[in-house]
Amino acid sequence: MRNLLFFIYKYHVFFIFFLLELVAFIIIFRFNNYQKASFLNYTSAVAGNIYNGVSNTQEYFNLRRVNDSLQIENARLRTYQITSYYNNNISINDINDTVYKQQYQYIAAQVVNNSVNKRNNYLTLNRGRLHGIEKEMGVISENGVVGIVMNVSEHYCTVLSLLNSNAKISAKFQKTGAFGSLVWDGIDPKFAKLLDVNKHVPIKIGDVIITSNFSTIFPEGLPIGRVYNHSLEAGDNFHSISIELFTDFSTVHSVYIIKNLFKQEQQELEQLIPVDKK
Question: Considering Cα of 7, then 10, then 12, then 14, what sign does the dihedral take?
Answer without folding.
Answer: negative
